[in-house]
Known about the structure:
By secondary structure, the protein is α+β, with helices and mostly antiparallel strands. Helix content is 15%, strand content 29%.
Amino acid sequence: MGLKAAGSNWEISKRGQVVRGSKSFDDFAEFLGTPKHLIGAWFSLDEAILITDRGRRFSNKVGRRNAVLALVFGPNSRIFPRSTKANYGGFEHPSHDHLPRSQSALSCRVNKLGYVALDVPLIVLASELTDQVFACYEEDGSSLMNELQNLGDL
């Protein structure tokens, strides 16, 4: 017997193989810590978890920052932070203009011209990218989505 997910029938053997399970893929993804969101998903994350590859915080700001999902690998995710201040440089990114009454319009915090720091990849646990901090999705075909997809080809 291996690991068993609380409240479900998912069971993982000591070798990491699925022994049995009868719940949905979303339940299994949550059990494994894998986000169900895709590249281009925006999240409003606590500044304290936004750490660079040098072990430093992206900013000394207190509060939340918008960041876009670029890649999921195992229990980790690569995200890029966004700032409304030009001194961070990066890829210019317009505010979002979602259709009224859409779910994204209710939670989207990408509401000012900003800059996505594509030169500052941050790694966060995929388990941090929950529905509670989800903001919206980047529009398909946008210049930022094209950049994110090009980065994924590297």
